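Now produce a polypeptide, keeping tokens residue-aligned:
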Amino acid sequence: MDYALTEAGNAILEPMRAMGAWATRYANAVLDAQERFEARETSTRSRSARPRR
């Protein structure tokens, strides 16, 4: 039995390849931004958890 993509499956190949290229290009920038966000969130939570005087 032979398997093949449908017309819709073939149509999505180019955008999926472009998304893969984008992810490869920007992976480190995305991870850096996520770390900065998480550090900021952790800092904000620890300040709000402190007892107020």
Notes: The chain has a mean pLDDT of 90. The chain has one domain: 7-53. Residues 29 and 41 are 18 Å apart (CA to CA).
